[in-house]
Amino acid sequence: MSLTFEQPLNEKIRNYLRIETVAGEVKAHATLSHPGAEMAYFRTLFELAELLERADLRSDLLKDLERQLTQIELWRPLPSVDHAQLDLFEQQLQNLQRRLQAQTRPTQVLKNDRFLSALRQRMTIPGGYGNFDLPQLHFWLAQDSDTKAKQSQAWLATLAPVLDSVALSLKLLRQTGRWQEQLAIRGSYQASSEQGLDLLQVRVKQEYGVYPTISAHRHRFTIHLINHETGKADSRNLPIQLCLSLESK
After folding, report:
1. Alpha carbon distance 129, 107 (integer Å)
2. Among candidates 192, 202, 204, 197, which has minimal Cα distance to 243?
3. Where are the transmembrane segments (predicted)?
């Protein structure tokens, strides 16, 4: 079994990856199917909202979608292109573009919700969500499971346009790179790229008992393999796989 580690090479991709990580946790808790899921859901929902409140996020996503729509037109004349698949992809992009354009502030619905606003404010205080601090939360938690799950899903659904756009941008970014075999000499590997990079992926077999630490710039990077047991640099020559996703123009 191999483990894949990712290193963003700019702030935009770093933010996308953080959103993806937290969104996955929110979705896992939103079903409220395990003990303690309600409070875990609220904590991760507020963490996600904070990430989505970046002023440049929506504009970055709209630029990404427009760039992909332009790329589709460049692909159309190619003889090997599947035009039916290309049309479906274009429709998906245009749908996301319309939804995102219609949502000026992704977290506005959550901000306007009095229950969530009070809860978000009190949860910054350690232990600040007891029934004496937030009686409305105590009441909400006492509702039946179906009612709570439907409400949790409804809050999350208000973020769908931006979350779907982030997911598609990352999917396309990961697909643009090509995997290559390399050898980390005495646990280290270094390389450079003439064209700037957006994302670096490193794949290492779990049986080696190591994980990579990556020092990277948009044109160069260094990988050091660290032994999981000792926490120190591993000195073996170990094969690794790399995938370089080039910077979007």
Report:
1. 22
2. 202
3. none
For residues 168 and 60, is the Cβ–Cβ distance under 8 A?
A: no
Domain with 153, as residue range(s), is 11-171
**Residue 38 φ then ψ, to 5°:** -60, -50
Compute the C-alpha angle 166/168/172, nearest 5°.
120
Q: Work out the angle at residue 5's Cα, subtended by the Cα atoms of residues 3 and 11, and round it to the nearest 5 degrees.
A: 165
Domain's final residue, options 171, 194, 228: 171
Contacts 24+ apart (CB under 8 A), 108-115: 109/155, 109/158, 110/45, 110/49, 110/155, 110/158, 110/159, 111/49, 113/155, 115/140
Residues 41 and 148 in one domain: yes
Handedness of CA 120, 122, 128, 131 (dihedral sign): negative
Are both 117 and 86 inside the same structural domain? yes
Give the C-alpha separation, 181 to 241, whole Å.
Answer: 5
Answer with the one of 125, 153, 171 that is the final residue of a domain: 171
Mean pLDDT by 10 residues, the chain (249 residues): 96 97 97 92 97 94 95 88 89 95 94 96 85 92 95 97 97 92 97 93 98 93 97 97 89
Same-domain status, 181 and 150:
no
The reply to whether 121 and 216 lie within a common domain is: no
The Cα 61–Cα 67 span in angstroms is 10
